[in-house]
Amino acid sequence: MIRTQQLTMVSLGPGDPELITLKALKALKDCDAIGVPTKSSDGSFDRSLTYRIVRSLMKSEGFERPIFPVYTPMRFREEDWQAQVETLYGAMEEYGRVCFVTLGDSGIYSTVYYLLDRIAEQRPEVYAGCEVIPGVTSFSQASARARKPLCVGESQLRIVPLLDKEVPTTTVYMRPKIGMETNTIPEEGAMVTFEDLGFAGERIIEGKIPTVRRYMTLLIDFFKKDPHAV
After folding, report:
1. Does residue 2 register a pLDDT over 70?
2. Is 61 helix (H, G, I), strand (E, B) or coil?
């Protein structure tokens, strides 16, 4: 029997199992096995919050899936990321449809894109079929708990890593007016335009459109990756 092999990167949210999205929960229920990161070299989950979230979801939602450890020592070394993708390759061979879970949102300081960069280069057919499912961020949860907005009206939001060096920046441009010209918006990295994202008629356009056509328009200038940086 030939197994259908697929990899899905699933964001679990900031820690509360009830803050997982319906799409993420469905992916966990539909897969054949779940990869859970662990910092323990013996593959145990004694210190893994991620594992506790997954087990809690299985219990509350009434499903079971094999769980396999993905050793994630957080040393930001090439050999560690390669070992992780090798674990995922092996799991897909054994199980078929595999989910790899991450805390928070996969787009915010997550291991996911270190792995996807390597998968795209090594196994383009796996990368082409891979889905990334977003999640609730810790600062979204913090805003809700404090009952204070992250941005409202004409304010803006900045995410500032507490580092002692200059770092590249991703800039999100939102709330444009229909008919607005975009020539004044700087383009420093890899700009992508999103129209009606998540709705019927969704369009994702590489580059910057000259004129805003839809109310639900988002422009993101993704930072340029340094191939030698972590």
Report:
1. no
2. helix
Q: Is 227 exposed, middle or buried (0-12, 13-18, 19+ CB in 10 A)?
A: exposed
Nearest to 110 by CA among 133, 87, 86: 133
Contacts of 150 by beta carbon, 8 Å cutoff, 6+ apart: 139, 140, 143, 157
Q: What is the pLDDT of residue 74?
A: 84
From CA 28, how far away is CA 59, in angstroms rounded? 13
Interval 46-96: pLDDT, tens: 889 999 999 999 999 999 999 999 999 988 899 999 999 999 999 999 999
Nearest one of 133, 132, 150 to 141, comparing CA atoms: 150
pLDDT at 224: 84
Q: Which of 205, 201, 200 is nearest to 218 (CA)?
A: 205
DSSP 211: B
In angstroms, the CA 13 to CA 19 distance is 6
- CA 90 – CA 84 distance, rounded (Å): 10
Residue spans per domain, the chain: 6-138, 160-225
Q: DSSP class of residue 108?
A: S
Q: Give the H or E element holding residue 219.
A: strand 217-222
Residue position matching structure tokens 């990167």: 9
Identify the architecture of domain 6-138 in CATH: 3-Layer(aba) Sandwich (3.40)
Q: What distance in Å separates the CA atoms of residue 108 and residue 103, rounded to the nearest whole number? A: 10
Per DSSP bridges, beta strands 217-222 and 190-195 are antiparallel
Kindly report the pTM of this predicted structure.
0.91
